[in-house]
Amino acid sequence: MSQPSTTTSAGPEQGAELAAARAAYEQLRTRGLSLDLTRGKPSPEQLDLSDALLTILQPGDVRAADGTDCRNYGGLQGLAELRAVFAGLLDVPADQLFACGNASLTVMHDVVAHAMLAVLPGAKQRWADEDEVRFLCPVPGYDRHFTICDRFGITMVPVPLTGEGPDMDVVEELVAADPRIKGMWCVPKYSNPSGESYSDETVRRLAAMPTAAPDFRLFWDNAYAVHHLTDDRTPLLPVLAACEEAGHPDRAFVFASTSKITAAGAGVAFLGSSPANMAWYARLAAAQTIGPDKVNQLRHARFFTDAAAVETHMERHRELLEPRFAAVYEVLERELGPLGIATWTRPLGGYFVSLEVPEGCASEVVRLAKEAGIALTPAGAAFPGGNDPRDSQIRLAPSFPSVDEVRSAMEGVAVCVRLAAAERAAA
Ligand code: PMP
């Protein structure tokens, strides 16, 4: 993403633009809008796509392929037939993949908690016994990853993204020098919020880089593995295989879920890693639960009999998402393109558009939008501590509102960007 231009000296043209922008904003406020572009939630129409899950199991249909009665306790690893469907999609061997509860965030939180309280394979001691634990956080990133770090007192070290994943020169230097760096958040495909995917070279370097910490882990959150928005399916190098090849078989924990495939909140989460890591996890998870919700897993296994069924289902999602993203681009191009005061991403998948406004303007845009009835993700949310050093990045989440609502919201956002930029130029 190129940097938007900023104007710094006020003059008659800036005065005229400021007056025009103020007038447009006053008109926007009179519309009494109530629109929300904050969180990447599926729309009701997307959720409808999986409504068969509500009735797919009939009384008497309660057994998995191996005869397991899914209503009863047990089966910590989750149903084999569901793991078989997602193993290929996530590039994790089925016997190294667990099907867990309803949310991958829970699993991420728990893996960090377990690493705090139990010695990871290859570690000298528990993370709780370290003086300080640090995680690399590619920015802009996913705010809930940062919340997990906050909760465990983990110091977050921001690293820039390049469009092909994190800046690997920076990452390699940091992890080689600092044994306190124990982990790194990665959203390797259609990243939240930048939309970028990690190149093969990025994945290889992450897998191969020497780390000062013997127990360094990649927290590989592949939340958008199958969430394409174009025919370009952006292949991602399998991280577990890359790590093994590079001589670091235990380096990555892979997370994913069906939250944005079936029901967000009532889907199935997955965790995959090396045999040693999964044995470690299984021992600790066994103290938390006698087993996951296998009835929900059976529903999902009936709904998706193979990986191709998942891909076909994702095409239906794409049909609903594409016009919403198109509405975002159409309005931004029309309203802001000619002004040259903002840039934005055009992701090939995922749930977000990242909007870059002139430096120092993002908080003001979000404030103005709120006053006009348009809720945006708080400025800075994609940065550790909520601190965007340039105050220029805004995450747009167009999935939930209708296409008309997205268009109205974006027209409003464009007015707010214009006013914030004009105010700044005139200041
Ligand atoms: N990871 C990323 C990168 C996400 O964007 C989201 C949803 N916003 C999640 C995880 C949440 O996944 P889950 O519902 O499985 O907890």
Describe the protein's topology.
Elements: H1 12-30, E1 35-36, H2 44-48, H3 80-90, E2 97-99, H4 104-117, E3 134-139, H5 143-151, E4 155-160, H6 168-177, E5 181-186, H7 200-208, E6 217-221, H8 239-245, E7 252-257, E8 269-272, H9 275-285, H10 294-303, H11 307-335, E9 343-344, E10 353-356, H12 362-371, E11 374-375, E12 393-396, H13 403-426
Parallel strand pairs: 1-11, 3-4, 3-5, 5-6, 6-7
Antiparallel strand pairs: 2-8, 7-8, 9-10, 10-12
The chain binds 4'-deoxy-4'-aminopyridoxal-5'-phosphate.
The site of 4'-deoxy-4'-aminopyridoxal-5'-phosphate has 13 residues, from helix 4.
Could you provide a short overview of the structure?
This protein has helices spanning 12-30, 44-48, 80-90, 104-117, 143-151, 168-177, 200-208, 239-245, 275-285, 294-303, 307-335, 362-371, 403-426; strands at 35-36, 97-99, 134-139, 155-160, 181-186, 217-221, 252-257, 269-272, 343-344, 353-356, 374-375, 393-396. By secondary structure, it is an alpha/beta fold.
Overview of this protein structure:
- The chain has two domains: 12-46 and 311-426, Alpha-Beta Complex (Aspartate Aminotransferase, domain 1); 64-305, Aspartate Aminotransferase, domain 2 (3-Layer(aba) Sandwich), CATH 3.40.640.10.
- It contains 13 helices and twelve strands.
- The chain has helices at residues 12-30, 44-48, 80-90, 104-117, 143-151, 168-177, 200-208, 239-245, 275-285, 294-303, 307-335, 362-371, 403-426, and strands at 35-36, 97-99, 134-139, 155-160, 181-186, 217-221, 252-257, 269-272, 343-344, 353-356, 374-375, 393-396.
- The strands form three sheets. It has a seven-stranded mixed sheet, sandwiched between helices.
- Strand 6 (217-221), helix 8 (239-245) and strand 7 form a beta-alpha-beta unit.
- The chain is globular and about 75 Å long.
- The structure holds 4'-deoxy-4'-aminopyridoxal-5'-phosphate.
